[in-house]
Design brief:
The complex is a heterodimer of chains A (115) and B (114). Chain A contains no helices and eleven strands. Chain A has 115 residues and is mainly beta. In chain B, the strands form two sheets. In chain B, strands 2, 4, 5, 9, 10 and 11 form a six-stranded mixed β-sheet that branches. Chain B has 114 residues and is mainly beta. Classes of the chains: A mainly beta (115), B mainly beta (114). Chains A and B meet through strand 5, strand 9 and strand 10 of A and strand 5 and strand 10 of B.
Chain lengths: 115, 114
Amino acid sequence: GAVVSQHPSRVICKSGTSVKIECRSLDFQATTMFWYRQFPKQSLMLMATSNEGSKATYEQGVEKDKFLINHASLTLSTLTVTSAHPEDSSFYICSAGLPHLNEQFFGPGTRLTVL
Amino acid sequence: SQELEQSPQSLIVQEGKNLTINCTSSKTLYGLYWYKQKYGEGLIFLMMLQKGGEEKSHEKITAKLDEKKQQSSLHITASQPSHAGIYLCGAGSAGGTSYGKLTFGQGTILTVHP
């Protein structure tokens, strides 16, 4: 199946710094990618839809100035957590799909720890 | 908004036993995805169901979507320790620009004892 990668897999940062997470579709082009967040022992919550060449669409309650999304190419979307705080510590996962196959593929996730 | 309820929340079985995980929606499902996740890792796509009454199988895992498209079940036959993990059902949107946007159930933690 199609492969979605994320980088980094783990990141530890100090409170107040910004962290960028990359999501790449390795063998297919994705005009739309999705960013999810998962807290320990909880399910995935959709944060935003990343649209290539246009602004991201954020879910209710997600601060767009806090979580900056850029989808500069058909194979890359980035999520930047700005001025990170300990409560932003979480597991962030991206996904991209193949509409003609009705399949959604997820990246391996990025574990962010803010000290 | 659509809500998905999974049951049971956790399941412990002996190797070789069959098991079923259920996923119930408050609204009609336009696409129901099943994924498996190891803790701290990404999601592995298992199956996607779209039509009422549809049933798909892969190796020892069978997923069904009921005729009313509001409930799905995932059945594992002769479970193995390799089946252990978190099983998540996810519901897609009606299509168009919302394609791929998934709402997930809370997950079912499966433990298989050898």
